[in-house]
Amino acid sequence: MRLLPRLVVSLLAACPAVRSLPTIAQEAALAEPAVARRVAPEALVIDTAIDRSVEIPPAATHHMGREIAQTMHYTGAPWLVRESRQREEDCRMLLEALAIRKGQKVCDLGCGNGFYTLEIARLVGPTGVVYAVDIQPEMLRMLAERAAAEGLTHVRPILGTVVNPRLPDRQVDLVICVDVYHEFSHPGPMLDRIRESLAPAGRLVLAEFRGEDAAVPIKPLHKMTKAQVRAELEPAGFRLEREFDRLPWQHLLFFGTGPGDAP
Questions:
Q1: In sequence order, what are the residues at sequence separation of 6 or more whose Cβ sits closer than 8 angstroms to the Cβ of residue 166?
Q2: How far is it, in rounded angstroms, from Cα 175 to Cα 201?
Q3: Average of per-residue pLDDT across 109-129
Q4: Which of 142, 145, 147, 162 has a CA that sits 20 to 30 A from residue 119's CA?
């Protein structure tokens, strides 16, 4: 999610074919005859109103004993929408596990070029909102063009910073971070702002490659164990509510902020 001094894109070999998850509407559209050449829609407006007066401290190299990974550079965006991703990660199952409802406000934090954002936008429908947050404007431009092309005008691209995702306070029903949290250069401030953005029953969901499983073909720096995740989020005011363990390579951990006993 962050702007980086160097490129980290070699988690897996990228595939030449790139596409997002196919939808029924897209498949049906392929069967329709072309009636007229359509004018390309304008991309969505990206919210870039960052407060430049806020001083950002230097990035840490480690957090609570864990080395912080560098984030994928925007030039590696094709890897995010590689054709093999569904087969490798079972993205459809991940989306189903989120149990997103129509009309919800959802944040795809570290959205990249919108692989999950567009699917989430279809799930919340036009009465919902998807806050698509990234700190690389190049990623957001790709996302905005794709969302506009599919008529998903309830997606709101937001340029965040490494300490602030710039979300509205106490309004977001779900913040989802897919393979992103381990790359936060400033985990403390980011978790504080995420917590402040959540609605009273809101949830933070982390998908992270399983650090306990050596068979997961991802560099160890880009993996986390459940114990690591809990050790970092619980002191920040989050409580583990649910675990989903059926994905091929990733943990899916659901955190709330209310009182209660952790499992």
A1: 47, 50, 133, 158, 159, 160
A2: 12
A3: 97
A4: 162
pTM comes to 0.83
Instruction: Write out pLDDT tens, residues 2-56.
Output: 443 343 334 333 333 334 455 534 443 444 444 334 455 677 999 999 999 999 9
Helices assigned H by DSSP within 6-60 = 24-31
Assess if residue 3 is contained within a domain: no
Number of domains in the chain: 1
With respect to residue 8, please indicate whether it lies within any of the assigned structural domains: no
The enclosing domain of 81 has a CATH number of: 3.40.50.150
Model confidence band, residue 81 (pLDDT cutoffs 50, 70, 90): confident
In a domain, 117, yes or no: yes
- Name residue, tokens 């609605």: 199
Host H or E run for residue 226: helix 226-233
